[in-house]
Structure formats: C-alpha cells, structure tokens
C-alpha cells in the first residue's frame, strides 16, 4: 500500500517539541501528520480526511481547546477515531469531552511511550474495522435500494391495474419509458431505514398515499372532461406542471426536466410523492381508459417528449420483467 493510501495519524499540539517527539515514536506504526493549532488541524482534516484514521489532539492550546477540534471531526468525519491527550490538571475538560461523545480515549501526559504505542495501535485497528463495517453496510444498503427500485417498477403495474382496471391498454410502458429517460438511479441509502421491516413499511405507506393521490386526480379529470377528448389532457398537463411542461401542437407535450417523470421510482422512501407526479400517472391512466397513450421519446434539446397515439396491447409478464432489468 502506498504511503498516500496508508491510514495516517493526525496529532495536533501547540508545542513543536511534543509534535516531533510524538512523530518519532509513532511513525513506525503509521504516517503521522502534525499541526500546531486547532485551525491547522481542521485544515488537515478537510484535506486528508480520506486517509486520516486517528486524530490525537492536545487539550490546552491558544485560541481554541482540543475538544473543539475533536467535536469538529466527530460531526464531519465520524469514521476517524478521536483521542484527547491532556495533563492531569485539565481532567475536567477531558471528562466533558468523554460525556459529549467526542472522544474514544484520553491519554494523560506525560506519556509512557510503550503505552502510547499500544493505544494508537488499537485505535488504528478500530479505525480499520469501522471503515470495513461502513463499507459493508453501504454495499448492503445500495443493494437494498436497487431492490426497492425493482419492486417499484412492479408496483407501477399494480397501481395501474388497481386504479385503471384491467383494461387492454394500461399505460405502464409509457410511464416507465418516461421515467427511464428522466433518469432513475438508486437513491442515496437512507441510513434511517436500515431495518428491512422499517423500509417495507415506509414503502407500503408511500405507495398507498401515491395511489390515493392518483385516484383523486383521475376523478378530477373525469369530472372536467367527460367528453373524452385526449387533446385536452395535454393542456391539463401543462396546467399542472407549469413552466416545466409545454404543449406541442395538438398531439404532443414536452417536459423540460425528465426527472419530474421519474419521481415515484427514484425518490427516497421517506419522501412524499408530489401532486404533479400523481397527476402525470392519472393522465396516463385516463388516456389508457379511452384507448390512447403517449408515445415517449427524448425531447429536442433535452427533456422528455410525448406524442398522442393509439395505445398498445396489455403488457406481458415477460415484458414487465424486461423493464425491471432495465432499471
């Protein structure tokens, strides 16, 4: 492993002699970065946070105490193991730092070199284990979020069939084609939904709320346009999306930001689906009920474009599975 990727120790102390002493004693274990003040320590943390495994800070320094630096590291770089070193006379501040969860250990000055090396060796090992655990957890959550996307693709069919009825022209492909063009990537893992049961519950309530909103918009469209003229749906889309949507002639519509059409698939489980997006699904369902659809294509100059046309036949299980794989 190159030195630039070797886990390093950052030691902060306003005494230059202490920095040199610490560096000589600990560099056989790991590269040691040093700073003479809290401000310098913060700058090094921000610059080298990806390789700093352990932060050791003296407590009493001009300008700011070491526990302020440890608090800064805790808030921004929680993977770093934090250690406070202090004289016995400053023990009160050390206890405060421990109680506030800012540090892993404290080491009293003057140091016993053998004990100091042992403490730092254990801290480096703890930092390694933290990094490995965090990486495994992130990989697990990313896989789970990918599974959520696949489940949501299937849910699009369920919602369409449940709300639109088992007619021959459910708008599943139009909806998924628009979402694909809009861009669907697994959302950033939601660290509050690590538990599978919590995630499943959040998804269920999210789906139910979305289905209710779609149903309400579909009833609204039925009331306003009982004559079943599909061109009127385009003007209603423009009305609901505002400047983000424009009608093209009498049979087309353009969405400037395709992400608006991918919200149900792409947004985090805790987010409420917007009324605009629910109306988009309702509009597609209304068209499908009357034998129409929007054929989706990339928009000129970006975005997503839809053109009115006669709807396709019912989606088959194999076709839906193919859509799942695309996301």
From TrEMBL:
Gene Ontology biological-process annotations: phosphorelay signal transduction system
* Span of domain Response regulatory: 8-124
Residues recorded with modification 4-aspartylphosphate: 58
Task: List the keywords (alphabetical).
Answer: Phosphoprotein
Give the CDD domains listed for this entry: REC_HupR-like
Q: Is Phosphoprotein included in the keywords of this UniProt record?
A: yes
Domain of life per record: Bacteria
Enumerate the SUPFAM superfamilies for this protein: CheY-like
Q: Which PROSITE patterns match?
A: RESPONSE_REGULATORY
- Kindly provide the name given to this protein in its UniProt entry: Response regulator
